[in-house]
User: Fold Helicase DnaB from Nocardioides currus.
Amino acid sequence: MDPKLSAASDVLERVDRRLLDPEAAADLWQTGFPLLDEELGGGLRAGTLNLLAGAQGEGKTTFALQMARQSARAGRPVLFVSFELEAETLLQKMVSAEAAERSARPTSLTVREVRAAFEATDAAGGGLPERLGRHAGGIDALTAVTHWAPQLYIHRSTSTHTTLDVIAGAMKDVLAEQGVPPLVVIDYLQKISMPDHLSEEEQVTRVAAGLKDLGIEFQCPVIAISASDRAGLEPGTRMRARNMRGSTSLAYEADVVLILSNKADVVARHHLMYGSNNGGTYKDWSVMTIEKNRSGRTGGEVEFRKQFECGRFIAEGQFVAEKLVDERVYTE
Ligand SMILES: Nc1ncnc2c1ncn2[C@@H]1O[C@H](COP(=O)(O)OP(=O)(O)OP(=O)(O)O)[C@@H](O)[C@H]1O
Assistant:
């Protein structure tokens, strides 16, 4: 019988077996952002395509890295497909984020300091422990990262060579080595190599369908960052799911669509003028809108404070209390 064909009774039995076996992998991956997990009905699900889009520089890579770190820390493998940044750059952000999370102080080991240690431009000597050990929390952060680092696989990808098949091959490799499928992160979807004769719309359609298939085949979640179309980058526009490049097919294939916006750009004008908060602090927050959500409520708005100098968002977050608007209230 086709292994993809199952009687509902088999499904119930499978769930029951899973519940009784503490070793069996759960089908939910927590994101590390408790409010987002709540909105998603517990976390990211096996077999889903989860898109992350947003304004330029608003922290898409940072957010995705944080979800990757959460999974690795929980002992579950991650495949990070990076078209944008070198593996070392990603790790620098993660070491800094780890230090910040462990520190009660508002300032902590910054990405810049970690980079100086990695690149030996810090006027210190020795290897990583000696160089990071000069900073408060440096050794603890390095120890923590070293502990979960075997779970994180980084694929340095290029738009000329990294096809869906290459990504599937990397997923197979991780599965073979770890015995369980990885959480997959793609940074970013429109970079995946496709035959040149296809239009961009066709390329994006096939990539989205292919990523969804991989999630189903390997029974893992796929998180893909999406680039914005020109309209979504226009000043005066709030990016929406429809502004993802190749959007019709993307939104159709996706199970979850998350959009990051700068709070100062999307909060209604009266809050800026009369609210207890002000523009200066609103810009320190990113609003995440849950524009599509197959397993829960759609339209949820949660916000996270940025700490980009330490390569992270503060994970606790809060629900957005203010009214948000589609048009930016001011442009610079
Ligand atoms: N060392 C640092 N200190 C402070 N801010 C930084 C540092 N490195 C990067 N940033 C800022 O952090 C922000 C988030 O970067 P990130 O790469 O996560 O955003 P993104 O939305 O993925 O960006 P893009 O649209 O360029 O792909 C950017 O605005 C970037 O300028």
